[in-house]
From TrEMBL:
Pfam families: Fz, NTR
Protein species of origin: Salarias fasciatus
Disulphide bonds in the chain: C59-C105, C124-C148
Signal peptide: 1-24
Matching InterPro entries: Frizzled/SFRP (IPR015526), Frizzled_dom (IPR020067), Frizzled_dom_sf (IPR036790), Netrin_domain (IPR001134), Netrin_module_non-TIMP (IPR018933), TIMP-like_OB-fold (IPR008993)
Main location, first listed in the record: secreted
Residue ranges constituting the FZ domain according to the UniProt record: 44-160
Protein name: Secreted frizzled-related protein 1
Length: 307
């Protein structure tokens, strides 16, 4: 009886203060949608509170230390959570919206409460609208598992409170750079770009042309292949890459055609997208570290997530 009375009070409004990676933030919980766990779906084992492991990179610094398992994406094992969540770490690093991590971790690693709570629909829509252009630049759509219309609008939901919660990060110059061109000499960024790519090679750029909202990157003939993927030799000779939605965003690499570059890409439909470009600079410790790690680096399975 006492517990039921407490939950009635919580239904009115509960604000739980948590500490995020960027400092103090607040998650707001408003009312409860139902008494059943995750819409009444059945699981092989009952939900339990478990520690968020350090190697769950997406959420290990989200601001709370325990999560519900199974989670709200129907992952029943921690191994499955880690495998699927790893694909989203690069998007958080792109800083396309200040609440990207909040949205994702509310599903991958839901906070331990007596009853689970989904993110608010408007939060999902705000993150989706800000981050979709970044994902499209790498040839990935906003996935069906994050369809915003399935999240609550008036019932229980998690919202990020604060003045910039619904606005994409626009305070730093980095946020304006074309996504495949940012963090040019950072090892982690190079590896993330490599993982989002099907092929990679060393080459010089012959010409760059604007084409509607994109930029067309025409390469010189000589190329040293580092990662072939499904790219055939005949395709490599006449390869032209497209910097998706890159007509107006800055990319300093494309302003200097005298350099050699580590160029990465992937085929989407009938187009070859530029997914990463980094100056070939062996005097850079970060660059040498990235090249050394390329063969052994384990990439997340993007194709199993973004569909």
């Amino acid at each position: 009886m006492r517990s039921e009375c407490a939950w009635r009070m919580i239904r009115l409004a509960v604000t739980v203060a948590l500490v995020s990676a960027c400092g103090a933030s607040e998650y707001e919980y408003l009312s409860w949608k139902s008494d059943s766990y995750h819409g009444g779906r059945s699981y092989g084992k009952p939900p339990q509170c478990v520690d968020i492991p350090d190697d769950l990179r997406l959420c290990h610094n989200v601001g709370y230390s325990q999560m519900l398992l199974p989670n709200l994406l129907e992952h029943e094992s921690m191994a499955e959570v880690k495998q699927q969540a790893s694909s989203w770490v690069p998007l958080v690093h792109k800083k396309c919206h200040p609440s990207t991590q909040v949205l994702l971790c509310s599903l991958f690693a839901p906070v331990c409460l007596e009853r689970p709570i989904l993110p608010c629909r408007w939060l999902c829509e705000a993150v989706r609208d800000s981050c979709t252009p970044i994902m499209e630049a790498f040839g990935f759509p906003w996935p069906a598992m994050l369809a915003c219309d399935k999240f609550p609008q008036d019932d229980v939901c998690i919202a990020m409170t604060g003045p910039n919660a619904t606005v994409a990060t626009q305070t730093t110059g980095d946020s304006l750079i074309c996504p495949p061109c940012d963090n040019e000499m950072q090892t982690e960024a190079m590896l993330e770009h490599m993982c989002a790519s099907e092929f990679a090679f060393k080459a010089k750029i012959k010409e760059v042309k604007r084409e509607n909202t994109d930029r067309k990157v025409i390469l010189q003939k000589r190329k040293k292949m580092l990662k072939a993927g499904n790219l055939k030799k005949k395709d490599l000779k006449k390869l032209v890459l497209l910097l998706k939605n890159g007509a107006d965003c800055p990319c300093q690499q494309l302003d200097n055609l005298a350099n050699q570059y580590l160029i990465m890409g992937r085929k989407v439909d009938k187009q070859y997208l530029l997914t990463g470009i980094h100056k070939w600079d062996k005097s850079s410790k970060e660059f040498k570290k990235a090249i050394k790690k390329l063969k052994s680096h384990k990439c997340p399975a993007f194709e199993n997530v973004f569909k």
